[in-house]
Amino acid sequence: MTVKRCLLALALLAVAPTPLAAQATRPITIFAAASLKNALDDSLAQWQRQGGAKAVAAYAASSALARQVESGAPADLFFSADLEWMDYLQQRNLIRPESRVTLLGNRLVLIGEKGRQGPVAIDARLDLKGMLKGNRLAMGEVASVPAGKYGKAALTTLGLWASVENSIAGVDNVRAALTLVARGEAPLGIVYQTDAAAEPKVDIIGTFPESSHPRILYPVALTATSQASATALLAFLKSPEASVLFTKQGFAALPPGQGS
């Protein structure tokens, strides 16, 4: 009996730690707006070079990612391209509100395929419909994708929306709009400045006045189900070192407390 009990005890010791070990080695998962890809990939690479826990990022429109978190997807951090979708998760108790911080800002630009269109002033006098020449304007879905909502707001403020409303090629995220223009499938698109800067096959034709749309802000927070190791990654993303990597890609780093 003594031998059997010893064997049983050893078996329990061998089995019991397994779920904890598996949990400890699960990569930190961050759901991030598509426009963050280049800068966040650089940041995660730097984090891991410094010995940080393994981390992976899933990129899509903030709206789609928020819905996935709501459906129970195993994300540890949510990094949104607007405040509304972060508010959406906070109202449903799906993030840790004390961890929430607004880190970055961005600009909205009009792009065209490389070498096809010269610079224009973006104001109420712009003949955007004429510039399209019967083709489509690529931008995020205006009902859900943050870049699309900002774009519609800007066009509406400038009095241009009615003329192009029926010429919109709405896509699932801002990078998809960028791709349509880069491939020549749409002559013009509305994207973030940082996306345009990362794609050599497009030109920035003009920049929308910041007064024409709500501020483009990027909040990040731990999800309500985040694992403990995600706290250290969030601290890194808030650090001056990570800030340099984001500003290198064209984002504006916001002082603590600004834009919340």
CATH superfamily of the largest domain: Periplasmic binding protein-like II
Q: Which fold does the CATH topology of the largest domain refer to?
A: D-Maltodextrin-Binding Protein, domain 2
Which CATH first-tier class of the largest domain would you pick? Alpha Beta
End-to-end Cα distance, whole Å, is: 65 Å
Can you list the strand order of the major beta sheet? 2-1-3-10-4-11
The ordered H/E elements are HHEHEHEHEEHEHHEHEHEEHHE
State the assembly state of the protein chains.
Answer: single chain
User: In percent, how helical is the residue content?
Assistant: 40-55%
The structural domain count equals: 2
Describe the 3D structure.
The N and C termini lie far apart (about 65 Å). Helix content is about 40%, strand content about 20%. It has two domains: about 1-105 and about 215-255, D-Maltodextrin-Binding Protein, domain 2 (3-Layer(aba) Sandwich); about 110-210, Periplasmic binding protein-like II (D-Maltodextrin-Binding Protein, domain 2, 3-Layer(aba) Sandwich). The protein is of the alpha/beta class and about 260 residues long. The strands form two sheets. A six-stranded mixed beta sheet has the order 2-1-3-10-4-11. The chain is elongated and about 55 Å long. The chain has twelve helices and eleven strands.
What are the SSEs and their pairings?
Blueprint: H1 2-15, H2 17-25, E1 28-33, H3 37-49, E2 55-60, H4 62-70, E3 77-79, H5 83-91, E4 101-105, E5 108-113, H6 128-132, E6 137-140, H7 146-157, H8 161-164, E7 168-171, H9 174-182, E8 188-192, H10 193-197, E9 202-207, E10 217-222, H11 230-237, H12 240-248, E11 252-253
Parallel strand pairs: 1-2, 1-3, 6-7, 6-8
Antiparallel strand pairs: 3-10, 4-10, 4-11, 5-8, 5-9
Helix pairs in contact: 3-12, 4-5
